Amino acid sequence: MRQTGADRRMWAAVTAALAAMALCFALRGAAAEALPTLPWAPPEAAQIRGEGLVDINTAGLEELTALPGIGEVRAQAILDDRAANGPYRYPEDLIRVRGIGEGILEDILDQITTGGQGYAQNIGS
Questions:
Q1: 79, 64 in Cβ contact below 8 A?
Q2: Which is more confidently placed, 45 or 39?
Q3: Which has the least CB within 10 A, 4, 76, 95, 101?
Q4: Which DSSP letter does residue 4 get?
């Protein structure tokens, strides 16, 4: 079977794309090892630890259910997620918990903290 000029160009493009992908995969491992660990600083909201803020890294079921929109099921989901994935770096990390969307997070964001620098240092190492 004879190839036309269009066929040859298509195969050349496919071969070039495959070679580029192979190069990317080969370099990805080397590049990931060379990335430095970036210093972590909690957002200002996490540093303000006034009275009445609920520390989502240490709060129990009762404290969490006191937050608006967080019932017993969501509070237990927070505890389960924290046990499975470790402490939260930012209050916004609660979004990873099933059942907590941006609306609920927005309602409680000014009422929660992650404990500030202590957790940041433990997580970053």
A1: yes
A2: 39
A3: 4
A4: P
